[in-house]
C-alpha cells in the first residue's frame, strides 16, 4: 500500500510537474552558469529581465512549460541610478562580478527607476541545488519523472499488445503456428535486451518516442511465453469445449473465455516490466541515446554528473539515482503484492 500511494503521488507530480516546479520554463532549462553545481539550499538574488511574449495557450503552458520564460541573472549587489539599474553579477566566493547597467526601457511594467527593484529583483532558494549548467535540479527532477513513467506505460502497453496476441495464437492453434511463433520468441529472447534496444534505437533514430517503441518491442517476449503457457492449460477446460460446441468462433473463444482466465500472471509480469522499462530508459539516457537534451531525464542527469561523485558534489548524481531506485522498488513491491493476492493457494 505504501508503494501504491508513492506511485500515485509520482503520477500526480508528473501531471502537475510544471505547476509544482520552481522553474516552469520549457524543460526547466533556465540556465545560470555563474551558480552551477551549488549545494542544496543555495540562495541567491536574481534579476529578472522580461522577454517578448510568444503566443501560448494556458493548457500548453500547464503541460509543456512556458515558452515565455524571462531571463534570470544572478546578482550579488545592485544600486539605482538615474540611467537605470546598476548590478554586480554574481561570481561566487570573494571574486567581484562584472558591473552592468540595465536601462529603464528593459522593464515595461514600471514608470520610474525606483520601481525596478521591488518588481524585478527577488531572492530564490534552490532546494536541491543546481546542476552543472546552473539549472534548478529540483525542477529538472520533477519534470524528468514524466519520462520514466511514460516510458513504463507505453513500453508495457506495446509489450502486452504484441505478447498477448502472439502468445494466445501460439497456445490456442498449436502445431506449425506454435512452432513458428516460438522460434521467433526464442530468437528474440537470445539477443541481449540492451543490445537489441540500442540497435532498434539507432535504426529509428535518437529521440523520445523512438525509445518508447524500442523498449516496448523488446519486452513482449516474456509476456508471450507466459500467455502461451496459460492458454495451453485453459483451452482444455470444459467451458472452452462447451463454447466450441455452441459454435462460437475462435476469436470470441480466445478473447471472452480463455484470456480472462489466463491474465493473472500477465498482470504480475507487467509490474516487473514497468520497472525494467524504467531501468532500460535510464541506461539508454546514460549512454546518450535516450531522451535528448534539453529534455530532462533521470538517466541523463546521472550521465551529466556521475563524475561529480569524486569531485565533492555527489548529490548531483545520487539524487536521480535514488529516485530511480525508489520508483523501481515501488513497482517491484506492487508486483510481489499482486502475485500474493492472485495466488489461488492463498
Automatic annotation (TrEMBL):
Keyword hit for Chaperone: no
Entry GO terms, CC: plasma membrane
GO BP annotations listed: transmembrane transport
CDD domains listed in its UniProt record: TM_PBP2
Cellular localisation: Cell membrane
Keywords per UniProt: Cell membrane, Membrane, Signal, Transmembrane, Transmembrane helix, Transport
Signal peptide span: 1-19
UniProt xrefs under SUPFAM superfamilies: MetI-like
Ranges for domain ABC transmembrane type-1: 145-335
Membrane topology: Multi-pass membrane protein
TM region positions: 149-173, 180-202, 258-280, 315-338
Family matches, as InterPro entries: BP-dependent_transpt_permease, MetI-like, MetI-like_sf
Main subcellular location of this protein, as a coarse class: membrane
Domain of life assignment: Bacteria
Stated family: Belongs to the binding-protein-dependent transport system permease family.
Protein name: ABC transmembrane type-1 domain-containing protein
Amino acid at each position: 500500500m505504501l508503494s501504491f500511494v508513492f506511485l500515485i503521488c509520482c503520477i500526480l507530480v508528473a501531471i502537475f510537474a510544471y505547476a509544482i516546479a520552481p522553474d516552469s520554463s520549457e524543460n526547466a532549462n533556465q540556465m545560470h552558469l555563474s551558480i552551477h553545481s551549488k549545494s542544496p539550499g543555495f540562495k541567491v538574488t536574481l534579476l529578472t529581465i522580461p522577454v517578448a511574449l510568444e503566443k501560448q495557450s494556458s493548457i500548453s503552458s500547464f503541460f509543456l512549460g512556458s515558452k515565455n520564460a524571462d531571463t534570470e541573472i544572478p546578482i550579488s549587489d545592485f544600486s539605482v541610478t538615474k540611467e537605470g539599474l546598476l548590478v554586480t553579477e554574481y561570481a561566487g566566493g570573494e571574486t567581484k562580478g562584472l558591473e552592468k547597467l540595465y536601462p529603464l526601457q528593459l522593464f515595461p511594467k514600471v514608470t520610474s527607476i525606483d520601481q525596478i527593484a521591488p518588481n524585478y529583483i527577488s531572492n530564490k532558494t534552490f532546494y536541491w541545488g543546481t546542476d552543472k549548467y546552473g539549472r534548478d535540479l529540483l525542477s529538472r527532477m520533477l519534470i524528468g519523472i514524466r519520462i520514466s513513467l511514460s516510458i513504463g506505460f507505453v513500453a508495457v502497453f506495446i509489450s502486452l499488445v504484441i505478447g498477448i496476441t502472439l502468445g494466445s495464437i501460439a497456445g490456442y492453434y498449436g502445431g506449425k503456428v506454435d512452432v513458428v511463433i516460438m522460434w521467433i520468441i526464442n530468437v528474440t529472447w537470445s539477443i541481449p535486451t540492451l543490445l537489441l534496444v540500442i540497435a532498434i534505437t539507432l535504426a529509428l533514430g535518437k529521440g523520445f518516442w523512438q525509445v518508447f517503441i524500442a523498449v516496448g518491442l523488446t519486452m513482449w517476449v516474456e509476456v508471450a511465453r507466459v500467455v502461451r503457457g496459460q492458454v495451453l492449460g485453459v483451452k482444455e477446460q470444459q467451458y472452452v469445449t462447451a463454447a466450441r460446441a455452441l459454435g462460437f468462433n475462435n476469436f470470441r473463444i480466445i478473447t471472452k473465455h480463455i484470456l480472462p482466465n489466463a491474465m493473472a500472471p500477465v498482470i504480475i509480469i507487467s509490474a516487473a516490466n514497468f520497472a525494467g522499462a524504467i531501468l532500460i530508459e535510464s541506461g539508454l539516457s546514460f549512454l546518450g541515446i535516450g531522451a535528448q537534451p534539453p529534455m530532462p531525464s533521470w538517466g541523463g542527469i546521472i550521465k551529466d554528473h556521475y563524475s561529480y561523485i569524486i569531485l565533492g558534489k555527489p548529490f548531483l548524481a545520487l539524487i536521480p539515482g535514488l529516485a530511480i531506485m525508489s520508483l523501481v522498488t515501488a513497482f517491484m513491491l506492487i508486483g510481489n503484492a499482486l502475485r500474493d493476492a492472485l495466488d489461488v493457494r492463498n
